[in-house]
Amino acid sequence: MVKTIMLECRAGSIPDEVVAVAKVEDVDVAKLVHRVAEGRVVIPRNARRLGKVKPVGVGEGLFTKVNVNIGTSGTVVDIEMEKQKARIAIKYGSDTIMDLSVGGDLTEIRRVLMRESEPLPFGTVPTYQAWIEGVKKFSGLPPADWFLKVVEEHLRDGVDFMTIHAGITRDLAEKALKSDRVQPIVSRGGAMLAAWMLETGEENPYYRNWDYLLELFTEYDAVISLGDALRPGAIADAHDELQLGELYVNAKLTDKARSKGVQVMIEGPGHMPLDKVILDIKIMKSLTRGAPYYVLGPIVTDIAAGYDHISAAIGAAIAAANGADLICYLTPAEHLSLPNPEQVREGLIAAKIAAHAGDIVKLGSKAARWDIEMSIYRSELRWSEMFRLSIDKEKAEEIYRQFGNRGITSCTMCGQFCVFILLDKWLKQRPKPSLDKILSKFI
Hints:
CATH architecture of the largest domain: Alpha-Beta Barrel
Distance between the termini: 43 Å
Low-confidence stretches: none
Structural class: alpha/beta
Oligomer: single chain
CATH superfamily of the largest domain: Radical SAM ThiC family, central domain
């Protein structure tokens, strides 16, 4: 039997990846081993790419991670632009990258973007390729086993984690299309599978062949990210029977995956009013016994076209503070267009700010140290240190210098009336703030 990282932890071994994650996260190795063994932390990796991908932990007690989606659309196929997006994701601190390509040579694009994304863990959505290429290959709807063959192809290529839309059963798909939802299904993969099931009358091939999929993922020791095909695509649809019904199915599938030693995280909404975000995290964590939660936003208002990265960051901060583990960024182009490289950068930075804001609540002084150091340097007008600590150093320096050098030590907003200049004489007389004492204010 193949020893997955989860099974190794259960057997009392301490895999190298767990040691590496524990060091980066500053957590006790024994505690991390226990969390991986129970499925409350996952470390995305594929046995085919050991040594090429840095260990990244996602789950309980760890820093909130951020994912960047890249990939071609059905109308814009520019592989060089997608490679540039991958480089931007790495430069500005994404923790994982997913390829959502639906246009061009999907196999070649996946392999190119996977290489470009190293050393970050790389994810895909095999449903897209199974549907798009299957319809061409079979001159109609592909057979059920075709969906499984595409999953295996992605695993052989070395994909570290994969969205598998196994929770949308035929019954749920039928209910969704007859429901009074504003937007019955907004998941692209979910819509493909729903159409396949409704047309063929067969059950979801991923759900029906779950045991076989677990065998595949055991062989490659990759992570399953259970898709939220019925996530709410409008705030009015949040927490309806369809979203919760799929979550319940995913929780059952997670239990079975854990029994086989397969790592699983679960994907979540979607569009959701602010007051439902915390409840959503609690429901999900309760049903799944603490499985890592990978959320898209959540987007907290439907009117932010052009600014959906901000709407998503608001929801993401609340979600992260209350236990969400991986934030999928959104860009200003969401709902409007395939994002360009600059929009990828904006979306990533917004998501990273949200994740960090949540971590200050979730992890206390471990996360807040960064903020306190920045605050101290800000009070001392030490610009080089402030730039160094900024989440986007280049943007901070660009704005600071936008009106040129005015010969003052403060910024041009307050100028010579900066509080730290006005009070300089008295501030020099007080003891320098102690970093450790300030950090003690954070639990």
